[in-house]
Amino acid sequence: MVRVVILGAGIGGMSVAYELRGMLGAGPAITVIGEGDLFSFTPSNPWVAVGWRTAKQIQIPVATRLEKKRIAFDPVGAERVEPGRNRVWLRDGRSIDYDYLVIATGPRLAFDDVPGLGPDGGFTQSICTTPHATAAWDAYQEFLQDPGPLIVGAAAGASCFGPAYEFAMIVDRDLRKRKLRDRVPIIYVTPEPYVGHMGLGGVGDSKGLMESEFRKRHIQWIVNAKIGAVRAGEMEVLEMNEDGEIRRNHVLPFRYSMVLPAFAGVDAVRQVEGLCNPRGFVLIDKHQRNSAWPNIYALGVCVAIPPVEQTPVPTGAPKTGFMIESMVTAVARNIQGDIAGERREVQATWNAICLADMGDRGAAFVALPQIPPRNVSWTRVGKWVHLAKIAFEKYFLRKMKTGNTEPVYEKYVLKLLGIERTR
């Protein structure tokens, strides 16, 4: 019996597990190895951090849902991968053998790159995980009792800027509703060379659009920013010039701060020779396969993608939800072909599509392909984006509960945008 093991029970891992079962039928054994027993819809974390959602509303138990599709689940987490023996070691000392391994772990959150960064022993909040977002909501409630300066942003090397923009505008909206906005100066701190860069070199007129949105909301910003250190109520920010030299040293006071860290590869895979780059991201070809270990596939935030361009302060390229869905389909089809003895070379499109909520409206960013020059590059703002993101949350949670692999929402939205999932 063919054995497929999937590392990660997030958006990518759960999706590829369901899609593989749908394509392969009942024969192969599929096992998902997760970190804990809950699936979280991470795009909703900014809403959790301001109390617009609870963790319970965006999480579901994994084991019972996968069991209905004859997919095994182990929540203890992976300790290390041993490709030479086609084996994954678990944190409790057990091991699971595989014929095909799919790595969909997501990233390690590199808070340790900056002294004082992060919610665990540091002084800033995070929305990268739902437990972090829940802790951010607890801290936010305390902040509301005695509001003051608020810093939102991302650390040098960050690659996922959408949630930072979302949080800045969502918290602005929330404070206005509470009639506290006049007591809270907000500043956005980012390694991007300009607001709206997004790690993509800009998308359409995203620079002008995001600057305009920030001005409307009285949100100030510092770009080309490298956070040097964070202390209780104080952030040291080095503003660089175009040559990467220090232009100005800011010491910013804050009562509340949410900063996205840079990402790195997870410990279970990052030390395997030939599998990862120096930062720990999984090396793959255009078919999502690793060249050194061709029975290992990877998808999602854990894969190695080069920066779109060199910037004075390092920025990474984002991997959006729709891009991950494209990777899921490519991985599933290629493994299906391998098992059938028909080597397939399905490619993910890797188009960058982001729906960013602004509290009452939203912004849609579309870059096809991700790396310029592009066939399509535009940004739109409207109420429809806010509603589309809410609809996608409800749709995707239902999809994870039922295991339905028919990508109804994705196909509908992508068709409207003129985009294909794979090629």
Largest sheet data: 5 strands, parallel
The parts where pLDDT drops under 50 for at least 5 residues are none
CATH class of the largest domain: Alpha Beta
CATH architecture of the largest domain: 3-Layer(bba) Sandwich
The strand count comes to: 22
* Tally of separate helices: 10
Ends distance: 30 Å
Strand content: 15-25%
Within the largest sheet, what's the order of strands? Answer: 5-2-1-9-19
Short description, anyone?
It contains 10 helices and 22 strands. It is an alpha/beta fold.
Summarize the structure in words.
With 423 residues, the protein is α/β, with parallel strands linked by helices. It has 2 domains: 3-109 and 264-346, FAD/NAD(P)-binding domain (3-Layer(bba) Sandwich); 111-263, FAD/NAD(P)-binding domain, CATH 3.50.50.60. The protein contains 10 helices and 22 strands. The chain has helices spanning 11-24, 45-49, 63-67, 130-145, 162-177, 206-216, 267-270, 321-339, 383-402, 408-417, and strands at residues 3-7, 29-33, 38-40, 59-61, 72-74, 78-82, 87-90, 95-97, 100-103, 108-109, 150-154, 186-189, 219-222, 225-231, 234-240, 246-253, 256-260, 263-264, 296-298, 352-357, 362-368, 376-382. A 5-stranded parallel sheet has the order 5-2-1-9-19. Strands 13-12-11-17 form a 4-stranded parallel sheet. It has a 3-stranded antiparallel sheet with strand order 6-7-8. The mean pLDDT is 93.
Attribute tags:
single chain, 423 residues, alpha/beta, FAD/NAD(P)-binding domain, five-stranded parallel β-sheet, four-stranded parallel β-sheet, 10 helices, 22 strands, globular
